Amino acid sequence: MRGDLVRKLTARGLATGGAVLAFLAVALTGATAWGLGLALAALAATVWERRVRPGADGVAETALIAAGVLVGYARHLDAGFDPALAATALVLLGLVLLTGPLREAGNREIRAANLPVRTWVPQVAARLSDTVAGLLAVLALAALASLPAVVALLASLLVGAVAGAVALDLAQRRFRPAAGGSAVTRALRRHQPEFVLHFSAPPGSEYQVIMWLPYLERIGRPFVVMLREPESLPAIAAATTAPVVYCPTLRGMDEVLVPSLRVAFYVNHGAKNSHCIRFTQLTHVQLHHGDSDKAPSANPVSAIFDRIFVAGEAAIDRYARAGVEIPAEKFVVVGRPQVEAIEVRTQPARGLANPTVLYTPTWTGHHADADYCSLPVAETLLRRLLDRGATVILRAHPYTSQHPASARRLGRLHELLAADRARTGRQHLFGAAASRLTLAESVNRADALVSDVSGVVSDWLYSGKPYAVTDMGAEGDRFIEQFPLAATGYVLRRDMAEVDDVLTQLLDTDPLAEARWATRRRYLGDFPAGSYAEAFLAAARRELDPGWTPPTPRIATGAPLSPAT
Fold first, then answer.
1. Could you please report the per-residue DSSP string of 486-523?
2. 32 and 124 housed in the same domain
3. What is the pLDDT of residues 254-310, one digit of tens each?
4. d(CA 245, CA 241)
5. Which pTM value belongs to this model?
6. Number of compact structural domains in the chain
7. CB burial class (10 A; 0-12, 13-18, 19+) of residue 370?
8. How far is CA 424 from CA 242, 378, 386, 499, in A?
9. Who contacts 260 (Cβ-Cβ below 8 Å, separation ≥6)?
10. Range(s) of the domain holding residue 457
């Protein structure tokens, strides 16, 4: 996305430009102190670049900075040739040259959390570039303080010894692998997991897994989470007590997918899912990370899974409407267990004087046909809501910040709400304050919803409260055909010409109150509210029972939902 590209180019420019300026300042001018200061800034830029571009190769920049720091050190000491400083230069050269290969070797190793094993070697290898940057920063400060060169040598030898130990350990793993598999493999065999959750997605997508973890734990069987990108490991490991394993290679997957596993769950259609689906001894189940009428929710790739757990019959119809042919026996209606924490309002609440409105703009999507983002017209909408005395809870999609124009518009909305809060005292929630609430908590606080086409609408539907959906494609009458969930909501057109009439229906008259209950059953299943999540748990347990033969069609049923639930 464009925001990512801007950050990557900026990081690249700062790291390279800073390294060149630092070296030139020290080598070609007498401004040694200034040059060392620039070296410190360049080191910070190289560390930031590795956060933005995890695969960035900063060998040239690091070598330039190291050369500048050493020249600056020699000038500050002003003692001619110093053997300790020369030895330091050799150690630094070895570290700079070794960092990249060690990082690549470490990135091919399994890392684990919530398992009684230590996987410190791959972690140290992955962070060695930052360690070298820290060493150079220490040397720059030592140079500014005119400390003896032996201090620089000792610090360099210490880091060099750590790098050497890591290199030896990685070489042994590669050329003399342990009998019986790695320590992680042995620990997983002892753990005896019955299912695995496979996850691959860009950084910032961890919510897709975290929303499912409580329900996977409630299945009551041991399991393991397999990640394919290392950035997700800390957040997901902190959200569960189950083992979480970063598995970068196909060979590593062979080690992690131990014989006790019977089922693999997935929460998206990431390309790397195919790496796990090749294990035919497993039953592969797609869970999705939300239910909506978006085009990606009828992805033809779903057909590769053995089972597709969907919230309601509307999801099955969505595939058919998109021309995606999938055998009926693959679908299992399990509801949307995440909505069980949402409070249900059984009676319409009309004519609210000071309503609380939840506004949830989505992101722009990867492609034009998935761009449902209403942020370009959101300021008009929010001003009309404020004119009606509404308190606004603004929850933007996690990917919003990756699109520069969307990020600017969101910032403007934050300013608008902050100014109104200061003027009226209404306690609008946005930014960090809104993100601290779960979606269920946000729904429970609100009287009405304004949302783009997204999974939020389906979750909100469980509450029975009114909602409006934005039509950002100017589809007109075809909008409801393409997005049937909007039929029992109030549609806000892109031009906002009828915004006042729509808000009157949403907040005052609510003529679609009764019709929403039938839509609720179609989209969220027909299960009793008191045990709503049990539909998913029972379906998951049946998949784990090797002796169970699925009926046809595989549609779970329960007590009907109604305004009395």
1. GGGSEEEETT-TTHHHHHHIIIII-TTTTHHHHHHHHH
2. yes
3. 989 999 999 999 999 999 999 999 999 999 999 999 887 777 788 899 999 999 999
4. 12
5. 0.75
6. 3
7. middle
8. 47, 20, 10, 23
9. 189, 192, 193, 194
10. 356-523
